[in-house]
Specification:
- The chain has 978 residues and is mainly alpha-helical.
- It has 50 helices and ten strands.
- The strands form three sheets. It has a five-stranded parallel beta sheet, sandwiched between helices.
Length: 978
């Protein structure tokens, strides 16, 4: 089983194909130790044997120059053994070439005879042997582990690479790229050979995260549950190296002394590379291991305590052996596990002293040196200097905040809080008290996307803050209200925000109160029991302006814009959001600025200005990433909006490129949220990854309402494309019970649910189950009622005066599907739906949904006898589905084209043979339905013909098949596979 090696394997098999056709070739396969070179080549040898090739495989060994031609000897000896597939021809070829026979253990050359052979004579014999074997069948010669090859083997490799031309021979050599240090003798050989036209290089790269997950699943064979956390940890530590990953996984990821321990076998393998170095080289590697994955050149020289010349020589040695690789002004370990192995091998006292040396040097760097505070905190803690670690952690957190790295900032603040009770006078060292530092940590966590964790911390702070400190108490409540909104805990958010406002005096105007009012106004968009909006927000804008709080003023303007858009149909909201964006930028409030950017983009999108939305989304994503808030609520929102714009316009190549950045193996709710969006195209294209993605995000649905909404809505469509309407309705019902069960967001879900009920009603109607038809109609009535209500009212039962273009199109789709539940294909409704999805541009709009609507429109036109009109809509939909690669839709269109005789949507194929050869195309369609147990009326409905015509077709079929009953005809159909 090959995982993640399709391209590499294709390159190898292509070389084998060329050799089979008479074009000899050489492929050099490189990669780090344990990356899977042998596994890849083993798959090639298996394929070659299946194709009837002669396969010779030889291994080099770490024996230096003492055994010349070792891999050739191994290959010939193994192939010549009795029972080997190639034994007879290889033995015959060897008998004809005594010079090669003398290489074998049972030859007459004696010890050292190979070294006395004339090299040209031997090379000619090898070439002749391979050519002779190739006359009967292609030859695959594999020489493994060429990094250990002796000089004679290297010369043989060069000779064969140059002279093999038209022989039916494929030569494959493997070597460890991490062993090819600057002075390695194979290095110039590889460089020379790769310049030859018949020599190709294949690099075996490490696994990507998804491939590591697949590999571990194959290793476990279902014996234990493979969690996302395990996959993440194994991939992070192994860096995608399969051997390392297998060793780590098999060891159970044990921890000792607070460190994740390496399996002893893996540690020994890694340390063996270090033990080859000189004493100075080993000293440098140990120092570098204490420094971390990356080490500054000057620091490693000073901590190693070697003189300048010795330190330089030691570094050159380590780099030439590719243990460290140059990176900027320093070095990095070639693999993180090598650093782990060396670090774990240090004695405790040695480790502490080295950390102390690094901390001393870092403390002497100028203030503000980038990254120095984080490194100082790490080394001080490891050196047991707790006061130094505490102060440096606080500085590192603030530095990470300034650089837009909220996740790292949170980790530093968290470490400082853990040390708070262990250091003297922490408030002086931190420049703040414990509660405020905890508040800062929570805010960093929220910006990093960990909203639930941030909310949990703030709830604890509510009880720790001094009651007399109303400013702090208000700030905690205001932020907790904001996070509660993000978590869809709407009533709790409103209560907390109101408390934040009432705790502060109304005069004089302050920034704290302005922000509290801004958050409270935002909560009133969803629940406003006293009808305070929009008056409260308008007054709050004046307060924010008086308090010189532009960020809060911008947040209030955005809230007012959203309110007026839905309740007052304000057409100028885009300008309001743009003004809020500029105001927030001036006030250094990235969260407000990002929220304004999202709403500005969303407004363009909802009004059908897709080009404007694309430009705004690009700018918004850039802003989010530049300010380190790409994983905040609106950071995720603007990133997914950018994807949706391209999905809507039909630019699925660009949308797919964007979705490549959406995680698949998710472990956190906010990751599941963004991952779910990738399903839009994956479901529409019927891609196998859909089931895997759903498996990852489904366990997190209970933690994130938006992930549930997006994930289940597309899971419902996926089920419908698979002809499973009952599963689809389970997903729809789950969404209906969530916070997304009301409002405009539910209209699309209602349309999906109505599609499912229409399918169930059609089946029940065909089966004569009128009670099931009635139940489907009642359930459909409830869905269409909710959809219609969403058009009329916003949250809190406020009248809605505006709905976006897409929303109107989905309402029309829902109405048309409701008619289908009653068995009516309403041409007018489906035409209106298709037109609405164009957004006024016949060649644009929501391209995929236009095609889906035309599918149903074509069906309705055919049902109502307008075959020409149906064919025109059908052809347009087929063209779009083919361009988008929307396989499920294309399959449905082809089925409709066959049933309604509109076309096939595919190139012509040879007609059937056997008993069915005499049937016309229409008669074969009728026979298929007869085999399904359909009566004449049901056949007529399915094929858009009259029952009388269906009866005539059935009679003709019975006569042509020479059978007397529908049962016998059905038996013939099943036997012939239709």
């Amino acid at each position: 089983m090959l995982i993640g090696r399709a391209a590499e394997f294709a390159a190898l098999t292509a070389a084998l194909d060329r050799a089979s056709a008479g074009g000899a070739g050489v492929v050099l396969v490189s990669g780090d130790a344990g990356v899977g070179k042998t596994h890849l080549v083993s798959a090639l040898t298996g394929t070659a044997r299946d194709r009837g090739c002669a396969v010779l495989v030889g291994q080099c060994a770490e024996l230096g120059e003492s055994m010349p031609y070792l891999p050739l000897t191994d290959a010939l000896w193994t192939a010549a053994q009795a029972g080997a597939p190639e034994a007879d021809p290889v033995r015959a070829a060897l008998d004809a070439r005594p010079v090669l026979g003398r290489l074998l253990p049972d030859g007459d050359g004696g010890p050292g005879a190979a070294s006395e052979l004339g090299q040209q004579q031997l090379f000619g014999a090898v070439l002749g042997l391979l050519g002779e074997l190739g006359t009967d069948r292609p030859v695959l010669l594999v020489l493994e582990d060429l990094h250990w090859a002796d000089r004679s083997t290297r010369h043989l490799l060069t000779f064969l690479s140059r002279v093999l031309q038209r022989e039916r021979v494929c030569l494959v050599g493997t070597y460890r790229s991490d062993d090819l240090h600057r002075r390695h003798p194979l290095r110039p050989v590889v460089a020379e050979l790769l310049r030859l036209p018949n020599v190709a290089g294949v690099e075996v790269r490490p696994f990507r995260p998804g491939e590591t997950a697949e590999y571990l699943a194959a290793l476990s064979r279902g014996s234990a549950a493979l969690t996302a956390e395990v996959v993440e940890r194994v991939h992070h530590r192994s860096e995608g190296n399969p051997f390392y990953a297998a060793e780590l996984y098999s060891s159970g990821l044990d921890t000792r002394d607070g460190l994740e321990a390496l399996p002893s076998g893996l540690a020994d393998l890694l340390l063996s590379r270090v033990e080859r170095l000189s004493d100075g080289g080993q000293r440098v590697v140990r120092v570098a291991a204490v420094a971390g994955r990356r080490v500054d050149d000057e620091l490693v020289r000073r901590v190693s305590e070697l003189d300048e010349s010795a330190a330089g020589e030691a570094l050159r040695e380590v780099v030439s052996h590719q243990l460290l690789v140059p990176s900027g002004a320093g070095y990095t370990f070639r693999h993180a596990l090598l650093r782990e192995a060396v670090y774990a091998d240090l004695l405790p006292g040695e480790r502490t002293r080295l950390h102390s040396d690094f901390a001393r040097l870092l403390a002497g760097l100028p203030d503000g040196t980038r990254g120095s505070a984080a490194e100082l905190a790490h080394h001080s803690l490891a050196a047991h200097d707790l006061p130094g670690a505490f102060a440096a952690s606080v500085r590192a957190g603030r530095e990470a905040d300034r650089l837009g790295a909220p996740a790292e900032a949170f980790e530093h603040y968290e470490r400082a809080l853990e040390l708070w009770d262990a250091v003297p006078d922490p408030e002086s060292a931190a420049g703040t008290d414990r509660v405020r530092l905890s508040l800062t940590a929570a805010q960093a966590s929220g910006r990093a996307g960990e909203v639930r964790r941030a909310a949990h911390r703030l709830r604890r702070l509510l009880h720790l803050a001094e009651p007399a400190d109303v400013s702090l108490g208000s700030t905690i409540r205001e932020h907790l209200a904001e996070y509660s909104l993000d978590l869809d805990e709407l009533e709790e958010a409103r209560v907390l925000a109101l408390e934040a406002v009432t705790m502060l005096p109304a005069a004089p105007p302050t920034s704290d109160r302005a922000w509290a009012l801004a958050t409270y106004a935002r909560t009133l968009l969803y629940t406003d029991p006293d009808g305070e909006m929009p008056g409260l927000a308008e007054k709050a804008v004046e307060e924010a302006r008086a308090a010189a709080a532009p960020g809060a003023e911008a947040a209030l303007l955005v809230t007012l814009g959203i309110y007026r858009e839905s309740r007052e149909a304000d057409s100028g909201v885009a300008e309001v959001f743009a003004r809020a964006r500029d105001l927030a930028d001036a006030g250094d409030s990235p969260q407000s600025a990002l929220r304004a950017r999202f709403q500005y983009t969303r407004t363009k999108f909802d009004r059908g200005d897709l080009a404007g939305a694309a430009a705004a989304a690009d700018e918004g994503v850039g802003f989010a990433l530049d300010n380190g808030v790409g994983w905040s609520m609106y950071g995720i929102a603007i990133r997914t909006m950018r994807y949706l714009v391209h999905y809507t316009t039909g630019d699925w190549a660009e949308a797919g490129r964007i979705a490549d950045g959406f995680p698949l193996q998710v472990v956190r709710p906010y990751e599941a949220q963004i991952s779910a969006y990738a399903l839009f195209i994956e479901v529409a294209q019927g891609r196998p990854v859909v089931d895997e993605r759903l498996r990852w995000i489904a366990p997190l649905w209970h933690e994130d309402q938006l992930a549930l909404y997006i994930g289940r809505s597309l899971a419902a469509e996926h089920a419908l494309w698979r002809d499973d309407p009952r599963t689809a309705l389970e997903h729809v019902d789950s969404i209906a019970d969530s916070v997304y069960g009301d409002g405009a967001s539910f209209i699309r879900i209602a349309a999906t649910g109505l599609w499912a009920h229409a399918e169930l009603a059609a089946r029940s109607r065909a089966a004569g189950d009128e009670e099931a038809v009635r139940r489907a109609a009642e359930a459909a009535d409830e869905l269409i009622r909710r959809a219609r209500r969403a058009v009329e009212f916003t949250f809190g039962d406020q009248p809605r005066t505006w709905l976006g273009l897409e929303g109107h199109a989905w309402v029309s789709r829902a109405e048309a599907e409701r008619r289908r539940v009653d068995g009516v294909h309403d041409v007018g409704l489906w035409r209106r739906t298709a037109d609405l999805f164009t957004y006024g541009d016949p060649d644009g709009g929501f391209v995929y949904e236009v095609a889906r609507s035309r599918w149903r429109l074509a069906e309705a036109l055919a049902e109502n006898g307008d075959r020409d009109g149906a064919a025109a809509e059908w052809r347009s939909a087929v063209e779009t589905a083919e361009r988008l690669g929307a396989a499920p839709l294309l399959s449905a269109l082809r089925d409709l084209g066959t049933r309604a005789r509109l076309g096939t949507g595919r190139s012509s194929a040879p007609g059937p043979s056997g008993p069915l050869a005499s049937l016309t195309g229409r008669e074969r369609e009728v026979l298929k339905l007869v085999a399904e147990g359909r009566n004449n009326r049901e056949i007529a409905a399915a094929l858009f013909i009259s029952p009388k015509t269906a009866s005539v077709h059935v009679s003709n079929i019975l006569a042509k098949l020479n059978v007397t009953s529908r049962t016998q005809a059905a038996a013939v159909a099943h036997r012939e596979g239709i």
